[in-house]
């Protein structure tokens, strides 16, 4: 199992250190075998010791240069970061990243051997249009993406379920993940209002290899509980 926490624009470096101390201590004390990832804001990067893999929520496809407001390879290397989140719906729909831009970043970080957690998912109007329209839409998010890249992890997050408390039915998740499995042999995560109360049923769905958790992951105790549930599934 892969259990990933995306902090988005939450937590300071001090808060992240307290969080990582608790989570890493839990990983060691419980002898956790699952792969645990944490994606804090870039200002919270630090060396937190062994345990969870530290990842970047975003970076520009460059070593360094004149790209105001961005970070590049130099800043990732300073903290030994080799895992990155790409294609998240908030970067697509709020910050305006195009598929061309996302696939360019993908190719760059693939060339460097980075572990890439690649996010895909549909908005509510697409969901309402039916399964065929949904999968056609997801196909547009796979353009320029090497779906068999050895360090790829795919995260399916229906946009309408992120932070809303709404979750697709287990059958819907199973159906989408089955279609995605036909497109890649790499791990498939589910994301979108994952929490302690629904964690067990989600990770037991066929072709769900783990979860990408947003708001519910901000509390270290909750996240540790979700790790334990996944470990026992």
Total DSSP E strands: 8
Q: Which residues form runs of ≥5 with pLDDT under 50?
A: none
Q: Can you count the helices?
A: 9
The CATH first-level class comes to Alpha Beta
Describe this structure in words.
The chain has helices at 13-29, 73-78, 89-93, 99-111, 124-128, 131-140, 170-181, 196-203, 220-232, and strands at 2-6, 35-39, 53-54, 83-86, 115-120, 152-156, 188-191, 210-213. It is α/β, with parallel strands linked by helices and 233 residues long. The protein has one domain: Alpha-Beta Barrel (TIM Barrel). The protein has an eight-stranded parallel sheet with strand order 3-2-1-8-7-6-5-4, covered by helices on one side. α8 packs parallel to α9 (220-232). The relative contact order is 0.15. The mean pLDDT is 95.
Helix and strand arrangement:
Elements lengths: L1 E5 L6 H17 L5 E5 L13 E2 L18 H6 L4 E4 L2 H5 L5 H13 L3 E6 L3 H5 L2 H10 L11 E5 L13 H12 L6 E4 L4 H8 L6 E4 L6 H13 L1
List keywords for this structure.
38% helix, alpha/beta, 9 helices, TIM Barrel, 8 strands
Task: Describe, in short, the structure shown.
With 233 residues, the chain is of the alpha/beta class. The protein has helices spanning 13-29, 73-78, 89-93, 99-111, 124-128, 131-140, 170-181, 196-203, 220-232, and strands spanning 2-6, 35-39, 53-54, 83-86, 115-120, 152-156, 188-191, 210-213.
């Amino acid at each position: 199992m892969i259990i990933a926490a995306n902090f988005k624009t939450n937590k300071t470096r001090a808060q992240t250190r307290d969080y990582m101390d608790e989570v890493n201590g839990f990983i060691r004390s419980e002898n956790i075998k699952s792969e645990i990832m944490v994606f804090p804001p870039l200002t919270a990067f630090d060396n937190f010791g062994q345990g969870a893999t530290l990842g970047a929520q975003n970076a520009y496809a460059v070593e360094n240069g004149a790209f105001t407001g961005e970070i590049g390879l130099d800043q990732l290397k300073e903290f030994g970061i080799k895992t990155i989140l790409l294609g998240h719906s908030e970067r697509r729909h709020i910050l305006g990243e195009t598929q061309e831009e996302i696939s360019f970043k993908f190719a760059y970080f693939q060339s460097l051997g980075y572990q890439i957690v690649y996010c895909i998912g549909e908005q509510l109007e697409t969901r309402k249009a039916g399964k065929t329209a949904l999968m056609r839409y997801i196909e547009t998010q796979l353009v320029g993406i090497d779906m068999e890249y050895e360090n790829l992890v795919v995260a399916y997050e229906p946009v309408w379920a992120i932070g809303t408390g709404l979750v697709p039915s287990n059958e819907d998740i199973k159906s989408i993940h089955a279609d995605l499995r036909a497109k890649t042999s790499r791990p498939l995560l589910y994301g979108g209002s994952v929490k302690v109360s629904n964690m067990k049923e989600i990770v037991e769905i066929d072709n769900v290899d783990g979860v990408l958790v947003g708001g519910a992951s901000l509390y270290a105790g909750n996240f540790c509980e979700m790790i334990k549930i996944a470990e026992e599934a």
